Amino acid sequence: MIYFPGVDKIEYEGKSTDNMFAFRHYNPEEYVLGKKMKDHLRFAVAYWHTITYEGADQFGVGTFHRNWYGSTPMETAKNRVDAFFELLTKLQVEYFCFHDVDIAPQGNSLKEFFDNLDEITDLIKEKMDETGIKLLWNTANMFSHPRYMNGAATSNEADVYACAAAQVKKGLDINKKLSGENYVFWGGREGYESLLNTNLELEQQNIAKFFHMAVEYAEKIGHKPQFLIEPKPKEPTTHQYDYDAATTVAFLQKYDLIQDFKLNLEGNHATLAGHTFDHELAIARLYNVLGSIDANHDEKILGWDTDEFPHDLLTATLAMYQILENGGLEPGGINFDAKLRRTSIEPNDLLLGHILGMDTFARGLKAAAKIKEEGYLRDLIKERYSSYDKGIGKKIINGDTSFEDLFRYALENEEPKVKSNHIEYVKGKINDYLV
Ligand code: XUL
Ligand code: CO
């Protein structure tokens, strides 16, 4: 069965092609700053938005009628594996990501769910061996099932906490079976609705213990993928504990987890937190916890988590600049946590969505590489802070001053001459790198 008919492998054809099903910018084998584009970008496709999502939104049911639907949930799950790997192969994407519930029906109990997972992951493993496609990360969905209405590892119900631990244990076993390179924790309902009935400290301690147990278990089974926490400020909970990169770092430091975790940062989550994407990446870099990214874009006018395919060149360029400054993302990568608009109903639109995302990040990579190669921002920043290269500035940097010294210095000197940033010119220069 062919699920994406009429289209072969998506190839790089360059900017002038009229072929909708071609890359215009992403050329996997092309070298940028001494490394192949595909190795810089390490693209991954998300199972949930691609093969499981049916086009529903808050106001209406699904609009997609996929040709991989079977007569039972398990038959659909099996067809999805074939369809997914056909899509990955056609897109020349080497990685994928999934939640446990994306790949197999949950049945009527955890036991039934785990049996279904065993059967489907056998099929996934076969496909991985056949195609060479690898698992960037998997994760446990601990937010959809009604038992998780108060959270999972921050639930007030200890029995629910145990179910969450069982799901993550299973997730780590699967990660080992599929040689996963990372494992993600996104705290969907790990937060609170109202402080009036919330024991904040207990919830934080419990989730910290949960993470420690996950690390211990990974060590015990001799397979420790890079653990990643994905911050998001709200949706579905009103207040989510992992609000943004800075909040999550504070939590990891307080509970002695910083050495075992990095962050998986998402474009739309950054903007929901009132930040730009590159702000989140820069903060993560500062604390040496930039692990991986979920590439998507918000629809500013709607203002919620719309998970659009990335299409904005400036955002992609500034994100790629941070990634280059980080020395790359490996073992992390760029996962398209992005879904089609509800009106893009053909299966082949999934190819077009990913082509858009991949071409956008390819352009971002090239522009960021040029900014880095020419040293434009590096020189500008160096010059802007040059007062710390000499005199009193150097003393401050070296820790050779005190408040008394600085008091004397400030009073002895004339009013400081503060220079213009010319930031409008800088923004214009960055725009020049985009074209
Ligand atoms: C939700 C979100 C999740 C995580 C994985 O906003 O981004 O899909 O990426 O649970
Ligand atoms: Co995400």
Characterization of this structure:
InterPro entries: Xyl_isomerase-like_sf, Xylose_isom_bac, Xylose_isomerase. With 435 residues, the protein is an alpha/beta fold. The chain has 2 domains: 31-374, Divalent-metal-dependent TIM barrel enzymes (TIM Barrel, Alpha-Beta Barrel), CATH 3.20.20.150; 378-433, no CATH class. Helices cover 46% and strands 12% of the residues. The protein has helices spanning 37-41, 47-52, 73-91, 100-103, 110-131, 158-177, 200-220, 245-254, 267-272, 277-286, 313-325, 349-374, 376-384, 391-398, 403-412, 423-434, and strands spanning 11-12, 22-23, 31-32, 35-36, 43-46, 95-99, 134-139, 182-186, 191-192, 226-230, 239-240, 261-266, 290-294, 334-336. Strands 5-6-7-8-10-12-13-14 form an 8-stranded parallel barrel, surrounded by 4 helices. Strands 1-2 form a two-stranded parallel ribbon. A hairpin with a 2-residue loop joins strand 3 and strand 4 (35-36). Helix 6 (158-177) runs parallel beside helix 7 (200-220), helix 10 packs parallel to helix 11 (313-325) and helix 11 crosses helix 12. The longest helix has 26 residues, at 349-374. It binds D-xylulose and cobalt (II) ion.
Quaternary arrangement of the chains shown? single chain
The CATH class of the largest domain, by name, is Alpha Beta
Annotated CATH architecture of the largest domain: Alpha-Beta Barrel
Order of helices and strands: EEEEHEHHEHHEHEEHEEHEHHEHEHHHHH
* Cα-based radius of gyration, to the nearest Å: 24 Å
- CATH topology of the largest domain, by name, is TIM Barrel
**CATH superfamily assignment of the largest domain?**
Divalent-metal-dependent TIM barrel enzymes
Name the hetero compounds present.
D-xylulose, cobalt (II) ion
Largest sheet: 8 strands, parallel, barrel
General form: globular
Q: With helices defined by DSSP (H or I, 4 residues minimum), what is the helix count? A: 16
Low-confidence stretches: none
Overall pLDDT: 98
Tell me the structural class: alpha/beta
What portion of residues is helical? 40-55%
Number of strands: 14
| Distance linking N and C termini | 41 Å
The spatial strand order of the largest sheet comes to: 5-6-7-8-10-12-13-14
- Total number of distinct structural domains: 2
Strand fraction band? 5-15%
